Amino acid sequence: MKRFWTDVAVDTAGVVTLDGKPVRTPGRVPLAIPFPALAGAVADEWRAVTGEIDPRGMPLTGLANAAIELVGADPAGFAAGLATFAQSDLLCYRAEDPPTLVERQAELWDPLLDWARGRYDVHFEIVAGIMHKPQPAVTIARLSDAVAVRSPWELAGLAPIVTIGGSLIAALALIEGAASADRIWRAVELDEDWQAEQWGRDDLSLAALDSRRRDFDAGVRFLTLIA
User: Fold this and answer.
1) Is 25 helix (H, G, I), strand (E, B) or coil?
2) Which residue among 29, 55, 109, 220 is the one 20 to 30 A from 94 at the CA level?
3) Residue 169 Cα distances to 32, 85, 86, 202, angstroms
4) pLDDT tens digits for 69-125?
5) In the chain, which residue ranges form alpha helices assigned H by DSSP?
6) pTM (2 d.p.)
């Protein structure tokens, strides 16, 4: 679909409009956003369209759609899906060698685990290697509760951060202000960066990296705009 509108606005109900008509979600629900800063940013995405509509260039619109339709339809179920990442969190699975990688993981990951231990009064099983080891039931329950209390809008913003990074702990540290977005990115990309240092990156891996970073940054910005 090509651009067909002239004016983009946000009405008093927080609905993004094109020439006075509401933008609608894929399910044909008006795109009503109860956060003025986010509504304005979504409107800017529509203003920036110059030719054909490319959803990849409108990540905030996509996350708002998800918050209203996908997450909003079943917040508890969506939160439970994100909470499953606590069962095999990236930060709990460590390299056995080389020593430089082991040290780097400890440097970036241990502070996040220490924060989570203090914040939620939990214990983590740390594994050397990739063999799965269950986390304590209390740990899973408390991290699950920390996700379940989030609104559909927060859950929509958290989703790309959790899934891209493979770490629920890192995502919770971000949304609770315990670590910056750049610090979280460096933590969850540590293994990829290490491999790139050893072997370099080809065009496919660079494209995948760019895609992950765009989605991660979109989630971070979305959370910032609803804070």
Assistant:
1) coil
2) 220
3) 31, 9, 7, 30
4) 999 999 999 999 999 999 999 999 999 999 999 999 999 999 999 999 999 999 999
5) 36-47, 59-65, 72-73, 75-83, 99-120, 137-148, 152-165, 168-175, 181-188, 190-199, 203-226
6) 0.94
